[in-house]
Amino acid sequence: MPALALQHVNKFFGQGTSRVQVLNDVNFATQPGELSLVLGPSGSGKSTFLTIAGGIQTPTDGRVTVDGQALASMAAKDRDKLRLHQIGFILQAHNLVPYLTVRDQFALVDRVKPQGNLSPVALHQLLDELGIAPIVDQYPGNLSGGQSQRVAIARALYQDPAIILADEPTAALDSDRVKVVGRILQQLAQDHHKAVVVVTHDLRLREFADHVYQLMDGQLTLEA
Amino acid sequence: MFLALKEIRHEKLRYGLIIGMILLISYLVYVLSGLAYGLAQQNTQAIDSWQAQSVALDKDANVSLSQSLITADTADKMTLKRSQAYLGQAGVVAKASQRPNLSAQFLGLQPQQFISRNLTLTAGHKARNDRQIVADTAFQQQGYKLGDRVTLNSVDGKYTIVGFTKNAKLSVAPVVYGTLGAWRTLRGVTPAFKASAVVSQRAHQAVPSPLKTYSTQTFINKLPGYSAQNTTFTFMIGFLMIIAVVVIAVFLYILTMQKLPNYAVLRAQGIPSKFLVSTTLSQAFILVVGGLVLGALLTVATMRILPLGVPISFNLPLLAGVTGGILLTGILGALIPVKLILKVDPVTVIGG
Ligand SMILES: Nc1ncnc2c1ncn2[C@@H]1O[C@H](COP(=O)(O)OP(=O)(O)OP(=O)(O)O)[C@@H](O)[C@H]1O
Ligand SMILES: [Mg+2]
User: Fold this and answer.
1) Which pTM value belongs to this model?
2) Which residues on B lie below 8 Å from A155 (Cβ)?
3) Where is the signal peptide (chain A) (predicted)?
4) Which structural domain, as residue segments, surrounds residue A92?
5) pLDDT the model gives residue B351
């Protein structure tokens, strides 16, 4: 059973003449242990695809399933729970809560989900790998774009989710950091058996992917 | 609590301003209600100190002590019990050399009756003849001393202050206690009149016509200006509370609006709206309690520096009522934007 699947998903925005189709009959499936990369130019619908996959947005029609369970059939509360426990979002606008230090961003997760998060040792190792261990007491306002992006990655991984959805996780990073993040995502898939989906226009991530898709004019195609 | 406190810590200026605003509102409400209560007390302190339950007055006196007279004939038809006492009232102006003139309420008492019996003095002794008086401590604050010889109205002869008593105010004027004989002189009536009223510690007293018994509460409500003052203050405090609700609600609303993008991020992470709502409510609680505590401290400080003559006083039910009212107000204000939080759409933060 795929960890995450989209079947015949369409997404329209707007009404009447301004109605646009952003996703056109998208089919997608990923298994635990796989890193899927979705490449596409700006405005091609990458974020829309990812947020529909993670249950933040609902498709106009089609089916999204997580572990075989259809998101549409779930109560809103259960979708929240699913996001909290099974899905880790790395958002494009790597939004961090501005009044929490890096350390407290993780402490907040402990408050709502006391169990199943990374151990302190594992968290420290992750922060070390991402090169953000020295800035744990800083507020997001004092971080560079790349630093806050890496904190956003760490925060998503801290919840130890089975599915990781990353939107442009390397946009603000230099090549060395891209490699670090690419390797972390790869390890999560290979060693920790997570299903990792990355949408990006960053071709540097290609080498880490098990499958590469192209998203063009709302249509998703698997590269041979 | 976690998010609420962290945010307040990080945004000190913003939250400081809001606490400051709640402080000012609660300060205003505290001081105003303290003044209202203080003034009300100055109307009734003397009556309260007797712990009387009822007052018998001439039935045509319109429940007014100063309009009521009891003739000796009527008085002869009564035998007063231990719980009853004659009271003679006259408005006086007190004068003494090198002392300011003071308007006061002269109250004539019969020695051995309960009002005189229960009178507690802070200095000196009770009046032993018609030329001796016991004055409220307000006289002391104005420089009057034991042994001062005082002229009352334009009556011939002097009266000597032989004692002071605390908390003796009637209709916002300090009370001067003396004898019924002195009262007759000051009121300008012959011995054909006995007193102005019969005060009783019991709710019921049997009195001959033309007297009528009123409960102390009725009597107090009919004190000149008393009800009007209380109504005025009640309305002022009421309006203030309503304005406080609106102001606090508007502030908390704006505050919540500004936080919605952050909340959207947290919602995307799967953090339940319940958690965010309780964060917002506990934050409002912290802000309002903080403002109230500081407002109360400022009120205490104000009471310390207010001149003695300004009537301000508090009692526990009053304080609890005002505090509870503002707290409730704040929580109500914080409840209004809860709908916004519940409607937060995480999609709004997915940057393109
Ligand atoms: N809520 C919305 N209402 C209307 N149109 C929308 C909405 N969200 C997205 N779109 C449109 O859908 C298209 C795809 O948007 P999306 O954010 O998915 O693109 P993207 O591939 O993530 O772009 P980028 O690489 O710039 O992040 C864009 O043309 C955008 O204007
Ligand atoms: Mg995007």
Assistant:
1) 0.78
2) 269
3) none
4) 32-43+75-222
5) 57
